[in-house]
Amino acid sequence: MSRIALVGLRVALGLLFLWAAVSKVPDLAAFAQDVANYRIIPPALVPYAAAAVVGIEIVTGIALVTGIAARPAAILASILLVAFTAFLAQALLRGIDLRCGCFGTNEPASWWTVLRDLLLLTAALAVARLGQRRPRQDSPLTA
Amino acid sequence: MGTPLQVGLLCVAGALLGIAANRFTPHPAPLGARVLASAEQPGAVCDDPRASIARISVEEAKPLCIACTATFIDARSAQEYAAGHVTGAFHLAPGESIEALLSTLRSAPLVIVYDRDRECSAANQVAAQIQAQGVRDVRVLTGAWPEWLSRGGPGESGTCGVCTAGPR
Lengths: 143, 168
Hints:
The complex is a heterodimer of chains A (143) and B (168). Helix content of chain A is 68%, strand content 0%. Chain A has helices at residues 3-24, 28-37, 46-66, 70-93, 111-130. In chain A, α1 runs antiparallel to α3 (46-66), α1 (3-24) packs across α5 and α3 (46-66) crosses α4. Chain B has helices spanning 3-21, 58-66, 78-83, 102-107, 121-131, 144-150, and strands at 54-56, 71-74, 85-86, 90-91, 111-114, 138-141, 155-156.
């Protein structure tokens, strides 16, 4: 993958994380309810987890967009996406009918949502993996 | 600084930022309070307004059971059904053949489906399966079997000898 494509992927992923966070900020109480409906986190920890996830998404998004600590941010994004995918899949397998809680909308959780998260995970892993390569000295893309 | 440490720092910084900034948002997450799943909240059991199948409460369904004016369908497992079910209920789990019960269901003025689950996911599936066969008035019991029991709804036990074949 060319360096320009990699930078584009990183920035796009960062903007997506920022969008996901910003869309939840107007109603964190509703997002906490969405998190509770997954029935994974103890009820007493749900509001903390909801607020923390949004904060982590913001920090990850900023790091990916700016390129500061981009590789750790891409790894953190991958960890988040693995967790989101696992949460979604277990809810679907248990037959729990719930909202995804993904972008502050009423989007229902579905296998399509799982697939979307897996695609985003692939992108995050690509940024984390390829972002660590040192550019060749003779590469035309080397600044 | 190693990458794992940087990942950890980003994670902790983000979490602290989110928790600290929570109270400045228009509708903050209720830190310090317990947030239960919607289906576990009192009065909200199986009562999702987005549900496509109509609901009926235990209070409404009990007199219909006593007067035998509604047909009940138990969507739990056969073992759970055998251990105890609504008096006169038939057993039909999700995905099972509906053929043996079809004529009974089509002639019933009202069919009430229930399961054990607070989301009524099995009951929803079975109710949709029945509706697809042209049965018009099908509803799902809010509160499911646990609430039926706790509110003193009539029940009986034993296997369902008529659910798979033969007349009732």
